[in-house]
Amino acid sequence: MPRPTVATSLSAKLLLLTILFVLLAEVLIYAPSIARFRMSYLEERLAAAHIAALSVEAAPDLMVTKELQAKLLAYTGTHVIDLIQPGARVYMLSRPMPPQADAVYDLRGTGMGMQFVDAGNALWLALEGALANGIGPQRNRVIRVIDRSPNDPAQRVEVTMDERPLIDAMLDFSRRILAVSVAISLIAAILVYVTLHALLVRPMRRLTAGVVAFRRDPDGAPPLVPGTRGDEIGVAERELAAMQGTVRAALRQRERLATLGTAVAKINHDLRGILSTASLLSERLTESADPEVRRVTPRLVASLDRAVELCSQTLSFTRDGVLPPSPAPTDLRRLVEEVGAEVLATARPDGGRVEADWVNDIPTGTLAQVDAAQLGRALVNLGRNAVQAGADRVRLSIQAGQADRLTLTVADNGPGLAPRARENLFQPFAGSARAGGVGLGLAIARELLRAHGGELRLVESDAAGTAFALDIPQCNADTGAVAVAAHKSFVSH
């Protein structure tokens, strides 16, 4: 798998996103900053105008010379200054022919929102003028500003001034903000890039390299050694190492199953020949003069035939898995009776006969759309596990499930499953439900149920017994009419 390029790497994306987010933050900060700058500029002009107007009060007869008046107006950058004191006393400085104001701004009680609007309008008009005039002289508006004096709030100051110097100052402030924003963005981006590269990108590359190596060669890839980090990266490393161990164990188990399949294939021919011979010889027992021998001979023949079939199916299972089922309308009560006879005819591991009650609570006429042989095989595995584990009563019942499904419950009064068996219940060779078992019965039973689109699950297991639930498809009314004709005896399989 090719490594990502510099442009598409996670590091480049982090760098770009950091720059964008810092610039976005600066834009959000810029709006109140430029509005505050404009207000400060105007307040400074008003304060200077107040001081200039006080010279009129100090002059003889409240009159100043034209030269002094022109200097005061030039120093304050205004055309007209009006100072209104309490008692309606007015002091005024004015040029000989002052221009008319294009706009009036009363700053008394102006909120932050209106300050944003006024600053934005000023910059927008300046932008329009720049686009219209290019590099030529820029448009200038004359504005009248009214506010309480910053020096004495009891007095009101009104000035008429050019807006162009204010616009130039705002643009210069904006350029400084932009330069600072770019510098901060680059510095922050570099710091974030270096930090995240060390904390995230390098560990992620290590994880990715481990995944790629494991995909190419699960057995030969070096095991990932997780670090001691307590964050999400550390959790991912530990989980990946655990997953690799689990997958390697599963692969080794599959190899063992493949070896088992090879061994079964080698003995299958000879074993089938031996069983076939035994089956032919046992058929002669039907002619025995002993009534008891004649009574048990059909079951013996059926068991031998089933052993032959089981050899073939075991070979297919180890090679290809469970064969696809052939569902047909099946009388569950009849099937459970046949399974019970098969289970109770099984000897205990110590050689004694099984002494247990097989309680069939399935109502007469209950039909399921299943493969009778495969479902019977799953039930035999469950029943045999129960009686060989020490149960003396096995009860089978049925309940209606969801969406045309049935839930078949197999409950026993045995000693319950061991903790190790519960942890690996459906794992081949690891989840044996009884002492001395190989751990294939429940695994095969679950796979048989899943082949029907159902499920086998453990309901409960304690000192009072164990209960399993089998989810199977219910037979609909259209196919149920032919259930008796289509039913195949489990024993015959």
TrEMBL record:
Query: One GO MF term, please?
Result: ATP binding
Q: Does the keyword Plastid apply?
A: no
- Taking every annotated instance into account, which residue ranges of this chain make up the domain Histidine kinase? 266-476
Q: Which cofactor does it need?
A: Mg(2+); Mn(2+)
Q: Which Gene3D superfamilies match?
A: 6.10.340.10, Histidine kinase-like ATPase, C-terminal domain (3.30.565.10)
CDD domains the record matches = HATPase
Q: What is the lineage of its organism?
A: Bacteria, Pseudomonadati, Pseudomonadota, Alphaproteobacteria, Rhodospirillales
Instruction: Return the EC number.
Output: 2.7.13.3
* Provenance organism: Azospirillum palustre
Name of protein:
Signal transduction histidine-protein kinase/phosphatase MprB
**Keyword ATP-binding tagged:** yes
Q: Which residues form the signal peptide?
A: none
